[in-house]
Amino acid sequence: MSIQNEYLNGLMERVIKRDPAEPEFHQAVREVLTSLAPVANARPELIKEGVMDCLVEPERTIKFRVPWEDDQGNIHVNRGYRIQFNSAIGPYKGGLRFHPSVNESIIKFLGFEQTFKNSLTGLPIGGGKGGSDFDPKGKSEAEVMRFCQSFMNELFKYIGPDTDVPAGDIGVGAREIGYLFGQYKRLRNEFTGVLTGKGLTYGGSLARKEATGYGLCYFTDNMLRDAGKSFDGAAVVISGSGNVATYACEKAAQLGGRVVAMSDSNGYIYDKDGIDLNLMKEIKEVERARIKEYAARRPGAEYHEGCTGIWQVPCQIALPCATQNELPLEGAKALIKNGCFAVAEGANMPTTPEAMDALQEAGVLFAPAKASNAGGVAVSALEMSQNSMRFSWTFEEVDQRLLTIMTDLYHNASRAAEQYGLAGNLVAGANIAGFLKVADSMLAYGLV
Ligand code: NDP
């Protein structure tokens, strides 16, 4: 797919030449620049004033070592990152990912995406992302705690409630946020909203845990309704079984959908009667066990080895909620063949570019992550507001705000696509709507 603007094409080439070993980052930048070509054509000052060049370069990249001791007294050294991508519209905000696959390209693509996503929420938050190649799987509580404390020993120098407010992501849930926040508090001797996703007893927001999954379904519901469809009675396939997948499953079922499949990185389960979410939560949230267990305990459910097979399960709605590039062309073709009418991304960049093209060409409704999974960061921003006010809203109040944010977000993305002659293309609409607010703020500051 070539970018329909000569300058942006050259910029894309420079991005690749500057950091040739960052394929995930290139993929994310290419998608955004392709969508922004009509805007750059209509507003040449964005190129002249350097906005486009600044947009693809992080404001700051922090990379550090994280030494920690295991339970046997052996020393390990992991690598930590925080990429502060863009603070044009507010303090950097974005999650921390602990996973062995983490590298600079992945954190950079996530920070880049986060900039647009945060802008789309309508809230005053900039974009950032961080993490480590540490793998929490198989580690003891004490090892996870020591790792988190060591990670924060370096990170605390660069974050703060008005500077940069990290949150969770893959491998970083309430437990890790607790250890990170505790260490920050100890080092700084202050109690501030420097992290979101905190526990409810120390400044967390009700409905944060549910926010990304619920928000995904609110967005999808709006998209479906505009097309005269709904969750009601639809078979739904959800990849992953972590935070996003679990609460997407809960809300999809509340909206009338029947979730028939979920997965982890080893395999997927198929339950034609609809997932028993209480059992799933017990296995994944309480026992931290593998999804295979679900089939062992639920009569009629099947387990299949290998996670990509999940896209072969017939469904009308697919919600990829696991990780980047998990939905390849082959999966998209199977979804189309089986009559899937909507794909909405819960994970970040889960659909490969070829799969996305195939789905859009086949007329499948497609909700891009930076719009459809923005509910998590939106409620994180609401957590920041509650921390600043030293006040908390009820679950219903937060959920209602989330619903309003996701509904507005859908309409903004849809309108932006229409304005630039791309009606129905929410990928372009989300990129354009997210970009304009950031770009106009950058223009207002002058070259800084
Ligand atoms: P979790 O760590 O809670 O869960 C990730 C899940 O995905 C696990 O079930 C994991 O299984 C599974 N998984 C990992 N790789 C694969 C794979 N290749 N195929 C199938 N399943 C796989 O993470 P989250 O739910 O928080 O995050 C999921 C995605 O959503 C990420 O892309 C994240 O960036 C994005 N996101 C998360 C937000 C949040 O609020 N949490 C906000 C916005 C986006 P296993 O246990 O085997 O590793």
Give descriptors for this structure.
448 residues, alpha/beta, 7-stranded mixed β-sheet, 5-stranded mixed β-sheet, binds NADPH dihydro-nicotinamide-adenine-dinucleotide phosphate
Secondary structure blueprint with pairings:
Elements: H1 6-18, H2 23-42, H3 45-48, H4 51-55, E1 60-69, E2 75-86, E3 92-98, H5 104-120, E4 126-132, H6 141-155, E5 164-167, H7 174-188, H8 208-226, E6 235-239, H9 243-254, E7 258-263, E8 267-270, H10 277-286, H11 292-297, E9 302-305, E10 317-320, H12 329-337, E11 342-344, H13 353-361, E12 365-367, H14 369-372, H15 375-389, H16 395-419, H17 426-445
Helix pairs in contact: 1-2, 2-5, 2-17, 5-17, 6-7, 8-9, 8-15, 8-16, 12-13, 15-16, 16-17
This protein binds NADPH dihydro-nicotinamide-adenine-dinucleotide phosphate.
The site of NADPH dihydro-nicotinamide-adenine-dinucleotide phosphate (NDP) has 26 residues, from helix 9.
Q: What are the distinct ligands in this entry?
A: NADPH dihydro-nicotinamide-adenine-dinucleotide phosphate
Provide the helix percentage.
40-55%
Number of helices: 17
- Rounded mean pLDDT is 97
The major sheet is characterized as: 7 strands, mixed
CA(first)-CA(last) distance: 32 Å
Helix/strand class: alpha/beta
* Overall 3D form: globular
- Unreliable residue runs: none
Write down how many β-strands occur, each being a DSSP E stretch of 2 or more residues: 12
Order of helices and strands: HHHHEEEHEHEHHEHEEHHEEHEHEHHHH
* Rg, alpha carbons: 21 Å
Sequence of strands across the biggest β-sheet: 9-8-7-6-10-11-12
Strand content: 15-25%
